[in-house]
């Protein structure tokens, strides 16, 4: 007949195996999502467009996969520290039990971040797909380019300036200081 201690050890072992299986499943599923998105996403210059948001969701899923991997790695270190603590003297046990406590906190952190990033990646992907669908049907107006916002005539500015200004929102201060010069005569900077 098994004692309470043996049954408790068996329950802890079963729980650890179940947690590891779930962690491996989540890591595998997240890596599959990353592979799917990397293969099917269309890529374009960064801006306020569908491709940028799909890239952001891919980044969230990749970071989620990193956290899932680190959680598994820390779980292995916990098992190693527990084994060392069981086979050592009192001083060694104290040291390794402190490691186990530290690793357990790290495991919980990685668990929390993994789940948050997985949810954020899913929300980002779904919102992007819905937003892109409505933008294609005309419900959401496309964003004007900064050149149109400032009233610049890109035909007079010369070749290449239209590509520079189209959908590029990072250069508003540069555009404002050069707007008058562009309408008069293009110059290289």
UniProtKB/TrEMBL annotation:
It comes from the Bacteria. This is Uncharacterized protein.
